[in-house]
Amino acid sequence: MTLSRRVFLESLGLSVGGLLIGGGGKLWAQTSGLSPNVFVHIAADGVVTIVCHRSEMGQGVRSTLPAIIADELGADLTQVRVLQATGHKKYGDQNTDGSSSVRRRFDDLRMAGAVGRMMLCTAAARRWGVDAKTCTTEGGFVMHTPSKRQLAFADVVVAAARLKPPTSPNLKPSHQRRYIGSPTLPLLDGPAIATGKAVFGADVKLPGLLTAVMLHPPVLGSSLASYDASRALAIRGVRHVIALPTPQPPYKFQPLGGLAVVADNTWAAMRGRKALVATWSPSDNASYESSSYRAEQAETIRKACSVVRSRGQADEALGSAASRIEAEYFMPHLSHAPMEPPTATAHVRDGKCEVWAATQNPQESQNVVAAATGLAPTDVTVNVTLLGGGFGRKSKPDYVGEAAFLSQKIGAPVRVQWTREDDIRHDYFHTTSAQRLEAGLDGEGKLVAWRHRTTFPPIASLFTDGAALGREGELAQGYADYPLDIPNVRVENGPSKAHVRIGWLRSVNNIHSAFGINCFIDELAAARRVDPKAQLLEVLGPARRVTLEELGVEKLPNYGHALEEYPVDVARMRGVIERVTAMAGWEARTQDRERGYGLAFHKSFQCQTAIVVAVKKSRSGKIKVDEVWLAADAGLVVNRERAQAQMEGAVLFGMSIAMYSEVTFKNGVAEQLNFDGYRLARMPDAPRAIHVDIATNDERPGGVGEPGVPPVAPAIVNAVFALTGERIREVPLSRAGVV
Amino acid sequence: MMQLTINGIPHELDVDPEMPLLWVLRDILGMTGTKYGCGEALCGACTVHIDGHAVRSCVTPVRRASAKAVTSIEGLSPDGNHPLQRAWTEMGVPQCGFCQAGQLMTAAALLKKNPRPSPTDIDRSLAGNLCRCGAYNRIRAAIQKVADEAKQP
Ligand code: FES
Ligand code: FES
Q1: CA-to-CA distance for A389 and B131, rounded, in angstroms?
Q2: Are residues A44 and A190 in the same domain?
């Protein structure tokens, strides 16, 4: 257990419109009551406050993590106050990323509640003169069932606060759980959102707050050469035009530099930016051009590359195969485009900085602010608002650094507001990938060899200048960890140099690995005239736990878990494939004259997901996704209702990828600026129905925020093939004019 | 000085008449329920009503709203109990929630004009409101539910 026992000291409640966000004051330090650890406080009057240490970006984390603690504590969840944590190491890792909040913190958080429960039980047991082991808690009461006695938390909390917290608390047996695994947990922020009271990044109000709009260098690596701010400064409401320092590679989370127009209101700042005249130094990245880059990537995957994984003799087996099937797949850059563009507010004064930010990563925000201001990270308080969507973008706090830098310069609180154009053009882009897959069949048509080459400018380049190969963790997303029941396997990664900032976007490299593998399996099925489902099951092989040796790797990052704890379990993979095909009526699909069906499966973030998509042609001849079935096995799911919402949302997110979204570059500059160029799925695109089935079991919890995304695009492309016979190997489909 | 009536409350403002209504609401009046998502009438996050019609406040100069009745999400209902708001919460519609004020305002204007919309009517009316979280199916279902309930005697 990694809980700090320090009493919770920093937690004001700045209650703005229902969102209780942390701050500099002391909420419960002086009040008597029980604070067994940094996550739980029970006031003398029995009011339970639970800290949510992760950021809410639509995944329901503020409704989910407190439920875990409340369950073990025996609190009444409907009466619990949820306090949003500021960034602080005492909470452990707060980076709300990698579908990890429940997966990585489930045990910690249960312990946090259990410690409180045991202290309450001990205090009540002493009062009653009974054994504490015979007491339990429920709904805000300590109960002694044998004697049918109960005491409210308020009646024992003061006595409990005098006890020493137990060092090894025991956990409630699963049959005593009321909230974990419940299908009907309340949506904490629902009412505030529906009434416009919820506080997002840009909604923070401070006296004297100024708004800044940025003019970033158009090409990565160029810097401000000269500028003329006179016209901007003449606009009513514009107060300052300030140059920011130029970042040096590797870019990490550094602000991009350029100019800031600081004004009394957002509109003045936007007009001021338009009136700026600036020239920029040249950058090598100005050569970045998407179509020629794609051609280079295609060249790369046609030659031998660095080995990611190897088993048997794939090259030889392919050379001597009786027949070969091969195909190449391409995916473009994507922008996260969270509905709220990046925004943060900072106030530097008296050698300290207070920040209010829509950030997935408050602790990294402390570091970025420290680097921008010269303050110590411990002098930076980061309050976390609702995020207005994150998808990985807001775990990179460059914009938070901008706000702090400007506030320090000006000596006033400053909100930085990125426009949508800034957001799309200056994103940490999802990479652009090329893949080549080759399979060899022997004389009897048996699958004997598999070679898979991939190249993509890696996330590694954000942290190591010039890195052109994926890090181990990047390649473990569908490349190194995918079970292949084939005797000769070789997976390779070729270099691609990054010319823009590359970042992780919801499900990350699983987006391309799943696309390549699932589309190729469908092609294999067509070439061998077998059912795509049978082909998929044949490639995965029989139910088993796959060893490192079988994968052909020495180690596997496995999303941060030991293989024993989270095995590569083909039985569970086959399980979701069987489940989804049963739901969709896969066997009877040929009787459906109107629709084509596509199947795809992928495991990521310790969740296996299988999808069937049915597409049809609209009257205008365009492809329409008509119905989707999704089966997921994420082990124990705490908040089943939100998990389902995540899966539904993932289908739409994947549809945007399959159908509409791409960022292309010309002269190093993104060609899409807003939602006219960077297109997303809209309501008329939404399928008639999305059927979601989430497995119920007690396996270790997996992620649910990301794993729904990867199989969507290949399932759609496979369905298009089933309907039209047209094989599409590149998304978005809008390029081919079919949607 | 500009006269502006928002959610029934008159305001007198000294602002540039060209400033979009969105920024008047958010920055001048501190009514932050209305959201900025694109500034180009492409996402619907900023939707408010002017005389009952859904408009994109990011491209509406405030002068066009003067002497008219503006309704923002804060004024959709006195206490958050508009049937759509109730359905939104009951059916777990919001994910991140950022688009939802705009979705609700568009949906409310639709139901006012067309209390019995067909599925196609709903899709068409809401087509201008992006939801990056992809809550479309639940938004659609919530609107349908409110429409169906209103039909019942
Ligand atoms: S902000 Fe007005 S439509 Fe997007
Ligand atoms: S709920 Fe997040 S954008 Fe719609």
Answers
A1: 10
A2: yes
End-to-end CA distance of chain B: 48
Query: Mean of the pLDDT values across residues A297-301?
Result: 98
Are both A259 and A185 inside the same structural domain?
no
Is the same domain home to A254 and A127?
Answer: no
Per-residue tokens: A411: 């000596």
By residue range, what is the domain housing residue A209?
201-283+342-417
Does residue A423 belong to any structural domain of this protein? Answer: no
DSSP labels, B31-82: -TTS--S-SSSSS-TTEEEETTEEEEGGGSBGGGGTTSEEE-GGGSSSSS--
Q: Which residue do the tokens 């969709």 mark?
A: A584
- Residues near A148 by Cβ (< 8 Å), separated by ≥ 6? none
Answer with the one of A417, A451, A480 that is the final residue of a domain.
A417
Q: Provide the shortest C-alpha distance from residue B54 to chain A (in Å).
A: 16
A492 lies in some domain: yes
- Region A313-328: mean pLDDT is 98
Q: Which two tokens stand for residue A638?
A: 């705490």
- A716 three-class SS: helix
With 0-12 / 13-18 / 19 or more C-beta atoms within 10 angstroms meaning exposed / middle / buried, residue A465 is exposed
Q: How far apart are CA A603 and CA A711, in angstroms?
A: 9
- Tell me whether residue A422 is in a domain: no
Contact A196 B33 (CB under 8 A): yes
Put simply, the answer to whether A689 touches B133 (Cβ < 8 Å) is: no
Q: Mean pLDDT across the stretch A402-421?
A: 98
Does A3 touch chain B if contact means CB atoms closer than 8 Å? no
Atom of ligand 2 nearest to the CA of B133: 2
Q: What is the residue type of B62?
A: V
pLDDT per position as a tens digit, A603-650:
999 999 999 999 999 999 999 999 999 999 999 999 999 999 999 999
B-chain residues near A392 (CB < 8 A): none
Tens digit of each residue's pLDDT (9 = 90 or more) over A216-263: 999 999 999 999 999 999 999 999 999 999 999 999 999 999 999 999
Residues A368 and A496 in one domain: no
**Residue B124 token pair:** 């068409």
- The CATH number assigned to the domain holding A71 equals 3.30.365.10
Burial A153-176 (b: 16+ CB within 10 A, else e): bbbbbebbbeeebbeebeebeeee
pTM of the model: 0.96
Q: Check: CB of residue A103 under 8 Å from CB of residue A606.
A: yes
CB atoms within 10 A of CB A241: 23
Q: From ligand 1's centre to the CA of A11, what distance in Å?
A: 35
CB A728 within 8 A of CB A738: yes
Domain count, chain A: 3
Instruction: Spell out which residues of chain A touch residue B20, defining contact as CB-CB under 8 Å.
Output: 267
User: ipTM score of the complex?
Assistant: 0.98
- Whether the upstream peptide bond of residue A217 has omega within 30° of 0, thus cis, is no
Q: Number of CB pairs < 8 Å for A and B?
A: 192
Residue A441 lies in a domain: yes
Q: What is the CATH number of domain B83-151?
A: 1.10.150.120
Question: Nearest CA to A600 among A724, A447, A478?
Answer: A478
Q: Are residues A275 and A298 in the same domain?
A: no
In this structure, are A533 and A680 located in the same domain?
yes
Residue A32 has what pLDDT?
Answer: 74
pLDDT digits (tens, 9 = 90+) for B68-108: 999 999 999 999 999 999 999 999 999 999 999 999 999 99
Q: Which fold has domain B2-76?
A: Ubiquitin-like (UB roll) (3.10.20)
Q: Of A417, A449, A475, which closes a domain?
A: A417
- Please indicate, yes or no, whether residues A164 and A215 belong to a single structural domain of this protein: no
Element (H, E) at A724: helix A712-724
Contact check, Cβ <8 Å, A195/B39: no
